[in-house]
Amino acid sequence: VTLFTDVLVRAQNAKEIADTVDPAAVANALTVMRNGLMVAGRSGQSAESIDQTISLIEALLQPT
User: Which tens digit of pLDDT belongs to each residue from 26-48?
Assistant: First the structure.
């Protein structure tokens, strides 16, 4: 979680993600999503579906 938080703060400072993003909250959510993606990969979910999920996560972090 700390690594995600640090990266999100740096991205916010560089205007790569929206100023409205709460780095700590998003870091927790990303940790949960990462764990879910790992389970999805192990359970045979398609790479296309996993890539689509990652694209959605990236879109949610884009600056407005």
Answer: 999 999 999 999 999 999 999 99
